[in-house]
Amino acid sequence: MVTLLERTTTPTPEATFLALYDREGPLVLRYLRAWAPAGADVEDLVAEAFTRAWRAWPRFQGGEPEARAWLLRIARNHAIGTWRRGRHVRLVAIDEDLPDARTPGTGIDRIELAAALAHLSREERDLVALRAAGLSHAEIGALTGRSEAAAKMAWHRAATRLRPHLDREA
Amino acid sequence: MNDELDPTANPDLDRLDARLREAVAEPYDDYVLRRARSRVAGSLAAGGGRRRGVVIALAALIPAAAAAVLLATVLGNLGRPLATHVVTGPTPTVEASPSPAEPSPSAPPSAAPSPSPGAASAGPVSAIAMFDAQDGWGYVPTTATAPSGVVHTTDGGVHWALAHVPTAGRIVLTDPTGVRTAWVLAALPGAGTGGPAAQVQALTTTDQGANWTPGTALSISGGVATLSAIDANRAWLSVTGNGAAGSNAMQLYRTLDGGMHWDLIAKGNPGDSSTGPGYLPGSCQKLGVTFANASDGYLNLHCPGGEYFLYASHDGGVTWAAQHLPLADLTTGYVSNCDCQTAAPVFHGADGFLVLTGGVEAGPLDTLYLTHDSGRTWAGHALPGTPVAPPAMPGAMSTGYVVAVPAGGGTPPPAGTFYHSADGGRTWQRAAGQLDGLGTLDFLTDGLGWYVQQPQGGIPARILRTPDGGRTWVDLRYTVQG
Q: What is the spatial distance between Cα A109 and Cα B284, in angstroms, rounded to a whole number?
């Protein structure tokens, strides 16, 4: 019974896409959380971003490095669209008590972070989100069409503008 | 890069860099990712358009057995554990109306076929609450192809129909006087233009969703809105908002006329230590407010290192005071100085329970608190693990059921274990039946219950029903009609 499945060696598009999810999902989650308003349902955002990506998957032609940039662009567009629509009210059932975004972070509270990020331009906010998600300056540079040094300089400018709005020191 | 020559070198910004990375990561992210993955996989299985067409087309041309193999192959590549599950039936994911199953053999759910439920236009039901063996309500979360919604069943969960409620949120059921009322909290588009303002609206129905009475839309400033109702007219709406680290703001509104009018009766802001009528505590993360009756209400909290994890009001929500929770199974001492939080209490009249989760370095303090006086006093009993969802304690709470992750099972929870209590929650034993994955329980009696299984890691979304306290479960293979 099982062997029929185990012998399936040619990956289907679905399997390939889910492997992409497994590899890039954590990064996309952190990136979206940095972009999203406090209280947003990040599970919703991740699921929707990847579902959008799946719709566009037949048109994607690149390899692994391009896939990350491609995914982040989709995630960014989704995050911006969500932000514009103001879909940030999360309704919570009395019959559900799963972990959610209400648990505060340990270093900077996300409500505080969201408020501080609102003072940045969209480009600055994106730089901060990319960096917070875990990308190196070189990766950010490649993603945004800059050299590593230019990307680092741009991030420092954004972080310098952000810092006064985060009034609580670690 | 050499820092001495690097114009961007700045230790303060380096620290900020690290703090920002901390701020966007949570210890339960793996759990969130698994849930999101299941939803993405569900979208792939439902089609996302292209793949689904292939399956349908081939299924029409080839014998059922071959179609089953094809589907098994597709599903196998979507993450189903290869060594434990085999799709044995025809192609349920492409059938609009799977055959309802009636209780029969006492097979554990893991041996049952696992069709993907629901019509293509709606996602799986993620939570249910039953009025009786037939009449119940459920919630369908947002998917890539459909908005969230509220669904209703009149046959015990086999068939569900989407309620025609705008922008449906989640549901609260009340039945204190025999008038079955379902409250739905809906999120409306923000009143502002791009700012954080938004509106929520409560709607009620007393005729199984045939007619809905919309309340007055209430502008809020974002955050999380929770609703507690005790009958068709009286409800409380708590809205959390911005705050500093470790604490948040909350506004508490009350309606006495089914949501037509809302009055702000209390609020709490970080750093504001005001007490007395109209003030909620300023400290800690305030999560939600639940009322047992018109007077007695409880504010549950997440408060790392705190002393109080519950606040109580006995005047309908105007005046609040901290309430200690005793240590589990002890008559002296109370919970304090731990990284703990309480979940919203659940009341059946004066009887009720709430769960405290969290712990100290020495170990977890997962505790079930029982009350028989509407929450004025609580007795704590150790749970067998960390619940993945609130326990079910039907009727007079003489028995209980919970899916929990035993201590040492790792967090976020990889899977739950099904436990039963025959003494009202004081002690727990592994139940005879078996349940897969994570899910929520709803029991009407000591025997009749439902398990809403969340899609996760290849485990499908489905609803199981037991007639005998969990010893046997039947997959309802439900459908959702738009």
A: 12
